[in-house]
Structures are given as structure tokens and as C-alpha cells.
């Protein structure tokens, strides 16, 4: 028995998306940048994929820039925005962003660009009032993730954007965990930049995109050829991009069904744990990504729960990173000020559309055995 319950780490490739990518690897392998007829199909496939993705998030095709994934999109948003600003104005982000954002912020700090880190509430929310406290007319960029990857809390992006814009700042959101799982409309949210990664929505690994609203100043990320409107050089990954667009369209077409399936599984898991008298707290509250469940068990160790579940064929992840024999509490759990005795015993279960009620029951049985 193998139960995969780590869909926030990556997801299974959509089979139709896989089929859609094959022609661009085999017969039609032309370089999309070449002018001859052999490459015409690849060029059109790229344009179609860009248009499909744009429609999925209510953007224009020329506002979609293909990247090698979420990490690159985040790096580009943070560094590209800083490097386009000769005045070295400040960036504001939150303390519980993914390392792709946090480490990019550290990198620009080293180059003399100031960065401030907002603290989320204990419920896992970055409030517009905390942003309003920090922001000044010397803030260039605000970057707050759409949904946290460890605890799933969905941030009040529209309200945060309003604060940023009313102070003249640009707003970026890392939507890597959210795209393909909850409705995203960049115009309605009013974001200026948004990062996404295909492998989080049943697309292939190593491909993603950055949405950049027209007229936003951004320095190029890769120097080289003229691809991606001269901003991100490198021969386009046509097969990966076609696969990503197909996977995203599929997930969006079935979003309502998938969402309610996963929410039902999530409810079953929580109610069965309660019925079995397992002591736990669920991290984060308010609006949470469907299926993402961060659970903390008192006076135990998340790493050892992970390994014991693994022996039972169940894959989940932890909220603590094991460093040799020491379990380190993640920066996310630290940022929400979870007590150490709970934080150390944290696991993240992320259910996806492939999971079943039987999977959930096995996870509950497994946890009962380990914790009982
Ligand atoms: N941002 C968030 C919120 C993520 O969860 C991840 C991946 O886990 C990334 C960025 C990085 O994306 P990628 O794996 O495509 O580099």
C-alpha cells in the first residue's frame, strides 16, 4: 500500500497534459525562436499555451513570462524589481514566506536594498494593518504569499494590495500553492506580479510562470537571447510549457469538483482524529487551502512521525526540518509563535484529488498507532 499525502510538495502529472507534451519532444522538436516553417508549430504552441494560462488567471498573454518554476519566478520578482530601481527603495515581505522569497530578500539586502519582514498573526495571517504600519512612500515592493505552503492559510491579498498601492508600492504574490486549486483572478486581486509553478497543479517539474502586469518595471532575469520579450533569455521549454497549460486548464475546469472532494476528505480526517481521541491542534485558521492540514501533536517529534508513517507506506511532511539528530522548528511555525512542545511534533498532510476515503482512514489508523 502506498499513500501519497504530500501534494503541497508536488503532484502527480495529469495524463492528458503528459500526452499534450509528447509531440513537442518527439516529432515537432523545433526551436520556437527560429523563423523557418519547421518551428512554426512550436511557436504557435507556445503562443497558445501563453494565451491559455493568461485566460486561467484573467491576464493578457503578454503579461505571462515562462520560467523554470516557482523559485525562479520568486527570485525574479524580488531581484528584478530591486535591480530596476536605482533609488534602492525598500521591499516589505512576511517572515513566513517560502525560502525562494526569503533568500532572495537576503540576497538583495546584501547588495544594499533594505527589506522589512512583517510578522503574521498566531492564526497565520498577514494583516493589512501590520502592512500599513510598516509601509512608507519609500517602499518599492510588497511581496506576500497567497497561501502559505506549510499551514495553508490564505492571505487577504486584495486588502494588502490596496495598502501597497495607496502608498505607491508594487505588489507581488507567491501563489505557487494556490494556482490551480482556488480561483485566481489577477485583475480582481489587483496584484502586479504573481508566481506559479506547474508541478503544484499536476503539471511537470521545472516549469512555471511569472505574471507581470503591463508597465511594471522589472530588470531581466536571464541575460542572453531575446526570448520572453527580452526579459528572460533561454530556449523555451515548449513541451513543458504546453504540458503546464494543459494541466492548469484541466485543474481549473474541474476545480469545483476537486475542491469539494478534498474538503470532504479533510473533514473526514479531522473528525476521525477527534473521534479517536488523538490530541492535536490544527495550525492556521480562517481561510485555508483545501486539503492542506498542518497538525501539531504535543510532546512528540514530527520527524519520527514522518518516518513511522513512511514505514507504513504513507508519505507526509513535517513542520520541522531535521538537522542531524536535532529537529529544528520551521521558520513558519516560529513566525506564528507556536509553542515549542507543539511545533516539534508537527506534520503537514496535504490531500489531493487522487486521494480517497480509504487513504484518510489509513492515515488516521497510522497516527493512532504512533501516538496512542
Ligand atoms: N513558493 C512556494 C509557496 C512553494 O510552496 C514552493 C515549492 O514548494 C516554491 C515557491 C518553489 O517552487 P518550485 O518548486 O517550482 O521551485
Which helices and strands appear, and what pairs or packs with what?
Layout: E1 3-4, H1 15-21, H2 40-56, E2 64-67, H3 70-83, E3 90-94, H4 99-110, E4 115-118, H5 128-134, E5 139-143, H6 157-166, E6 170-174, H7 186-189, E7 193-197, E8 208-212, H8 227-230, H9 238-253, H10 255-275, E9 281-282, E10 292-296, H11 302-311, E11 314-315, E12 317-318, E13 320-323, E14 326-329, H12 331-335, H13 340-343, E15 346-350, H14 357-371
Parallel strand pairs: 1-11, 3-4, 3-5, 5-6, 6-7
Antiparallel strand pairs: 2-8, 7-8, 9-10, 10-15, 12-15, 13-14
Helix pairs in contact: 1-9, 2-9, 3-4, 10-14
The protein binds pyridoxal-5'-phosphate.
The site of pyridoxal-5'-phosphate has 13 residues, from α3.
Report what the structure shows:
Helix content is 39%, strand content 16%. With 372 residues, it is of the alpha/beta class. A seven-stranded mixed beta sheet has the order 2-8-7-6-5-3-4, sandwiched between helices. A hairpin with a 2-residue loop joins strand 13 (320-323) and strand 14. Helix 3 (70-83) runs parallel beside helix 4. It is globular, with a radius of gyration of 21 Å. Pyridoxal-5'-phosphate binds next to helix 3.
